[in-house]
Each structure stands twice: as structure tokens, then as C-alpha cells.
Amino acid sequence: MSQKRATNAPKRTRLSPDARRDQILDVAKNLVVAHGLQLFSIKKLAVEAEVSEPLLFHYFSSRTALLQQLLRREFTRLVTGLNASLNGADTLDAVLRVYVSMNYDQCVEESVINLLLSEPDIAEAVEADVSENREIREKMLVSTIAGNLNVSKKTAAMFALMASAASLSAARFAHKYGIDRHNSVETTINFIKAGFEAHRAH
């Protein structure tokens, strides 16, 4: 009888080490977003991921190391997606759309990247990458604005700073008051472009 039950029992899918690591990180991401970092624990993760605690420590040396790897993965995915979008953006309008959309999508309090970056010991895993990526993006935006509006790099940098502030403020407002993504993005782009056009008129 017991042998029959064992024969009929469903077999757990055996994952490759990389697939298992990703599966664990996926579950960790869901837990952090749902319950926050304060309530996140290795014990809870083991239960939700249906693995043993020793297996978790086989892949990740500590809770901090696990969360650092999660942050690296999510940040890499964000940058990869952003770069892919920018590669197809050949006009100022298209570039603005990429950045405004990104700001809207990332300006969610429950964003796992935002939550992980709020903890210094976790954030240090991508600190250098964040700074480098920000500098590259700022240079590209400044260059695009300068070329399209025929202004100096210094003036373009000021425009980029104002556009970024407007985009982030609009994103926070939209999330707070339930404005949908399409309306928020379009309104913000039109506002920024109106400011650029006002400069052209002078």
C-alpha cells in the first residue's frame, strides 16, 4: 500500500542551479513587495519557496547576500529594458517618453528596487552601477536636448533637471491620486514639451 502511494506521488521538478536560484529570488521578491523588508526572513522564504533553509544557505550566504543578489538582478533588468527602449528612441519626443514612462513605473512605493535601495547594506551592492548608469543617462538626455533645441550643454543640463523634477513629481502625484499611467505620461510629456516650446519662442 505504502509503495503504491509513493509510486503515485507527484515528483517535484528538479531545477538547474541557475533556475533554482531565480525561483528563490522570485519568491523573495514577492515576499518583500507584499510584506516589506522588516517582515522578510529566511524561514518565511523557505516555507514559501518550498525548499529547506540549508538549501537557501547553499545558494546565498546570508539574508543580506540574498537581498543584494535580488537587487542586482532587478536593477540589471531595469537598465537592460531602459537601454533597449532608448536604442529605438531617435527623437526628443521618443526619449522623453522613455524617461517619463520609466519614472512613472518606478515611482511605486512598493517597487522592490525602491524597497531594497532604502537599506544601505543592501543598496551598496549596486551603488557604483547606479551612479554610473545615472551619469550615462544624464549625458544622453542633455545631448539630445542640446541638439534638438540648439542650446548649450549647460542650458540643456538645466532643462533636463527641470524636466526630470516635473516627471518625478507628476509620477508621485499620479500614484497618490490614482491617475492612470497613460494620462499621467501623456500629460507630463505635453507639459515638458510646452516648456521647451516656450524657450523656442524666445
From TrEMBL:
**Which residues does the UniProt record annotate as the domain HTH tetR-type?**
18-78
Which InterPro entries would you find in this protein's record?
Answer: Homeodomain-like_sf, HTH-type_TetR-like_transc_reg, HTH_TetR
Query: DNA-binding region spans which residues?
Result: 41-60
Which Pfam families does its entry note? TetR_N
Q: Which UniProt keywords apply?
A: DNA-binding, Transcription, Transcription regulation
Q: Which PANTHER family match?
A: HTH-TYPE TRANSCRIPTIONAL REGULATOR BETI (PTHR30055:SF234), HTH-TYPE TRANSCRIPTIONAL REGULATOR RUTR (PTHR30055)
Calcium found in the keyword field? no
**Gene3D superfamilies from the UniProt entry:** Tetracycline Repressor, domain 2
- What is the protein's given name? TetR/AcrR family transcriptional regulator
